[in-house]
TrEMBL record:
Keywords: Acyltransferase, Transferase. SMART domains: PlsC. The keyword Methyltransferase does not apply. It comes from the Bacteria. This is 1-acyl-sn-glycerol-3-phosphate acyltransferase. It comes from Acinetobacter kookii. InterPro entries: Plipid/glycerol_acylTrfase. The keyword Transferase applies.
Length: 307
């Protein structure tokens, strides 16, 4: 009898894993080809209608993932807070910052945003273009894809720095033809205790933020967006792996969204060449990150009290 009880959870996990894997794979092969086919027509002529159709197809793909979350992971409990002053619309234009702990973060963002915000895009590496379906879909859907160069490469060829900035500008400006959410993980990498210690981060729950990407996005889009949104994700039982999430090992996820007021002096500054502006901008981001660190602490305490 005890052997049967031991095997049952394992069999459930295997069944859940096979179901999730089969559905996501099938959905990707169903939704992917139309996006790619329509994307090829843009080589001949750009079309807003094609862009809108591709976004609808992508949202359909995301809705399948969300259906899985709601029906295959029934024990997962959400604690979602949208703070007063933040109004979201499917027709809005948003810049979004978020803490980064796991590959699950993007799935959380998509789950939350599907019916509340325009399709979320984020900066990706140009090298991802070579991943079948995924890389081409990123390009077609308007994800800013960056050819990032190392400091050593730029030192040898300073022109690369200007080229990187121009590519970033074009990528951001292309979003303006439609509603968008542009996500920036300011930490630049996933949080781990090892990275936290190595950085000697001044924050308890966060790595040091990299302000340059946000400065660039605000410089290009700041006066054209409806809000700068800060998303905070807390996994009260520890940051999960992607497999852990889909196998039903995650019981609770808390999400907080708040609107960040953008000071007038932020817009129009030159982060790269103006040292005084750069220092002031970094101090502003540090203050935001300190508030976020304190928010995570409060969220964890409130979740612990509910447990």
């Amino acid at each position: 009898m005890s052997s049967q009880n031991t095997k049952q959870p394992i069999l459930k996990k295997i069944s859940r894993g096979l179901t999730v894997g089969s559905v996501i794979t099938g959905s990707t092969f169903f939704h992917g080809p139309p996006v790619l086919a329509l994307g090829l027509t843009k080589l001949i002529k750009k079309s807003r209608k094609v862009d809108e159709t591709n976004i609808k197809i992508t949202n359909s793909w995301l809705s399948v993932n969300n259906w899985l979350i709601e029906h295959i992971l029934p024990n997962l409990k959400w604690d979602i807070t949208i703070e007063e002053g933040l109004e979201l619309s499917m027709q809005g234009r948003y810049l979004m910052t978020c803490n980064h702990q796991s590959w699950v973060d993007t799935t959380v963002n998509q789950y939350f945003g599907l019916t509340r915000m325009p399709l979320t895009r984020f900066f990706t590496k140009w090298e991802l273009i070579f991943i079948p379906f995924v890389g081409q879909a990123f390009k077609i859907l308007g994800f800013p894809m960056m050819k990032r160069h190392s400091k050593e490469q730029i030192a040898k060829n300073p022109e690369l720095k200007t080229r990187d900035m121009e590519e970033s500008r074009k990528a951001c400006e292309q979003l303006l033809s439609q509603p968008f959410t542009l996500l920036n993980y300011l930490e630049g990498t996933r949080f781990t205790p090892e990275k936290h210690a190595q950085q000697q981060s001044p924050y308890k729950h966060l790595l040091k933020p990299k302000a340059g990407g946000l400065a660039l996005a605000l410089n290009i889009l700041g006066d054209k967006i409806d809000a700068l949104v800060d998303m905070t994700i807390v996994y009260p039982d520890g940051a999960p792996g992607y497999g852990d999430f889909w196998l039903g090992e995650v019981n609770r996820i808390a999400v907080n969204l708040r609107k960040i007021e953008i000071p007038g002096w932020v817009l129009g500054g030159n982060y790269e060449d103006d040292a005084e502006y750069r220092e002031r901008f970094q101090q502003w981001v540090h203050a935001l990150w300190t508030e976020k660190d304190q928010l995570i602490e409060r969220m964890q305490q409130e979740l612990a009290a509910k447990a």
